[in-house]
Write a structure and sequence with these properties.
The chain has 4 helices and 4 strands; from the N terminus they run αββααββα. The protein is α+β, with helices and mostly antiparallel strands and 153 residues long. The protein has one domain. A hairpin with a 3-residue loop joins strand 1 and strand 2. Helix 3 packs antiparallel against helix 4. It is globular, with a radius of gyration of 16 Å. The protein starts with a helix and ends with a helix.
């Protein structure tokens, strides 16, 4: 078991390592991107990567405080579901209403990898192999559909 400080240090080490690994990879548009803290450029739409002592998750989170608007944005993502699935090349979980770790209701499109821990450095290659192709594919997908969401929000 790790102390709070040790756990935070290991988490930080992982994300620094992942960021360095991804640094030479350009975005779909050819520009430089900060992969660990990906900015969609659209308010209330986030691409998130998280890893705990049990699992890794990559997601699109829609956090608009107005449920009707959030659902409208989610519906628009559903319109692109076939394109999304073809670009990502796998099925993700689509949740219209999902309660996050802070008790906030969001909409979420996600994929989870179970049985991995950020605290086990032997799992880091598996975590990088999980996150890298998916965040790159999300970026490529976003490069195609972002204008629709800019007009929507």
């Amino acid at each position: 078991m790790y102390s709070k400080d040790e756990a935070a240090r290991l988490r930080q080490q992982f994300w620094i390592s992942f960021g360095q690994y991804m640094k030479p990879v350009p975005s779909a548009s050819g520009s430089t991107v900060h992969w660990v803290n990906y900015k969609t450029g659209v308010k209330n739409i986030f691409f998130k990567m998280d890893v705990t002592n049990k699992q890794a998750i990559i997601s699109i989170q829609l956090t608009h405080p107005d449920a009707e608007i959030r659902h409208l944005i989610f519906d628009q993502f559903e319109e692109f579901k076939l394109m999304f699935t073809n670009m990502i090349n796998e099925e993700w979980d689509w949740s219209r209403d999902f309660t996050d770790e802070y008790g906030k209701t969001v909409s979420q499109i996600s994929l989870t990898l179970n049985g991995v821990s950020v605290f086990n450095q032997q799992h880091w290659p598996d975590l990088i192999s999980f996150f890298k192709p998916r965040i790159i594919a999300l970026d490529e997908f976003w490069d195609h559909v972002k204008p629709v969401f800019e007009d929507l929000t």
